[in-house]
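User: My instructor asked us to take a sequence, write out its structure as tokens, and then describe one feature of it. I'm not sure where to start. Here is the sequence I was given:
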Amino acid sequence: MHQPANKRINTTRRSASPLRGVSYWRARYAQHVRKARGAITLVVLRCTRKLLDRVGPPLESPPSSSSRLGDWYAKPFQIGRKRLILLMSGTSRLPVVMLGRDVANLGRDFPDALGAVLLALGVPEITVAAEVELSREFVYAATDSRSMLGSLNDFASMAQHRSRDFVEIDIVGLSVELSGTPIVAMNFGFPRAVTLGLLATSG
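Assistant: Let's start with the prediction itself. The structure tokens for your sequence are:
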């Protein structure tokens, strides 16, 4: 359901949660999965094996994502000593760069990170609000596409090259900059343009 046009998207990062043991977070995620199974809308976050070791076990045979941007593929990477996570839309290959210091809450924090990037791309606020709400419920799954993994690796390398001399990294600005990179697997289409096209369609 579309949200009112004047609804503000919260892009402020929440404070990091206290450190907990692995068993605590796995139990929390198991509770979340039980809730998400009954949700009408959700997003599937397909993580690399290294990232799954940190966020929780993957769900076998997950349902389809509700958003027009489809499943999201994710991998951890670093720029200098800064830990980051790169996520990429399975339908438009839009990149979203997130801070990686609170990786246990990746699924919880992703919708607001997505909203910030979509707003920066000029997507109408009412459309952004709808996409963010469609992504509130989530499940983790394993990656299922070599092509997507190749794009993730390419974009992570580009991000490292473009930001290697920066003391502070503008993760939203970096995401927008990367979205202007043509993708061979999409006939050299641009993630930014494909995303805007998908979100301009009705339904």
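For the description part of your assignment, you could build on this observation: Confidence is low (pLDDT under 50) at residues 1-22. Try explaining in your own words what that tells you about the chain.
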